[in-house]
Amino acid sequence: MIKRIALYLALVVGALVSVFPYLLVVLTALKTQRQLSSTRPWVPGLPPTFANIDRLLHSGFGAYLAHSALMTAVLTAGQLLFTTFAAYAFARLRFRGREVLFWLYVATMMVPSAVTMIPLFLIMRQLQLVNTWWGLLLPYLFGTPYGIFLMRQFFRGLPAGLEDAARIDGAGPLTILFRILLPLSRPAMGTLAIITVISSWNNFMWPLIITSGDETKVVTVGIAGFKGAIGVDPNLMMAGGLVALLPMVVIFIAFQRYIVRSVVLTGLK
């Protein structure tokens, strides 16, 4: 009983530590400037105000949300499509240098993204794609090493006899992929989709570097823009954080079962 009580106390403390930053975001977003300076950060302002959110939405922040949603949708669709093709080739098709090419590609995961950021920007500048949607999307549209590795390992775990039976019936590679392997790969594809949505929505560094105009600015860059030369508007910044956080909370509530399954799946070979 003592061990169980200690365990639950530790879990409660861990939950409070995890939730506390989000609680501060909500409390700060619903305070006025006067309440913010006269109350402690963890004390709610009474009465709460939605003036910060109203001021935020009238500042053009809604367009940034739309841009982030569009970027996330396009990148998720591209990741699922091109990653699936590449993973199927590495897992099932036989060609010279397959293993060497695959492990060289996976080895790029060990290279920090900050190392490739400047060369990638120079490439986009030479292609005249700076501050364009193509420049924003291309580096992540055609798959990532992690996504290809995840799908490839899942494909390799499926029974090869299914494909052999399909080939006997006259099915080609694309028929086998779309009608046999993909229906069995929904857990892995759900995992990849969830990871891509979260990483795309929260992506900050690359959109900050490649975009400069309001027509391509995403929500993370828009929130950072509330820090001006004079100072920081904490109420407006936290209101932006709250609005940007809500879609992720909705996704977590709606797909909680799949998120838990993705955690289990990513821990397997």
From TrEMBL:
<dbReference type="InterPro" id="IPR000515">
    <property type="entry name" value="MetI-like"/>
</dbReference>
<keyword id="KW-0812">Transmembrane</keyword>
<feature type="transmembrane region" description="Helical">
    <location>
        <begin position="7"/>
        <end position="30"/>
    </location>
</feature>
<comment type="similarity">
    <text>Belongs to the binding-protein-dependent transport system permease family.</text>
</comment>
<keyword id="KW-1133">Transmembrane helix</keyword>
<keyword id="KW-0813">Transport</keyword>
<keyword id="KW-0472">Membrane</keyword>
<feature type="transmembrane region" description="Helical">
    <location>
        <begin position="136"/>
        <end position="155"/>
    </location>
</feature>
<feature type="transmembrane region" description="Helical">
    <location>
        <begin position="64"/>
        <end position="90"/>
    </location>
</feature>
<feature type="transmembrane region" description="Helical">
    <location>
        <begin position="236"/>
        <end position="255"/>
    </location>
</feature>
<feature type="transmembrane region" description="Helical">
    <location>
        <begin position="102"/>
        <end position="124"/>
    </location>
</feature>
<dbReference type="InterPro" id="IPR035906">
    <property type="entry name" value="MetI-like_sf"/>
</dbReference>
<feature type="transmembrane region" description="Helical">
    <location>
        <begin position="176"/>
        <end position="198"/>
    </location>
</feature>
<dbReference type="Pfam" id="PF00528">
    <property type="entry name" value="BPD_transp_1"/>
</dbReference>
<feature type="domain" description="ABC transmembrane type-1">
    <location>
        <begin position="65"/>
        <end position="255"/>
    </location>
</feature>
<keyword id="KW-1003">Cell membrane</keyword>
<protein>
    <submittedName>
        <fullName>Carbohydrate ABC transporter permease</fullName>
    </submittedName>
</protein>
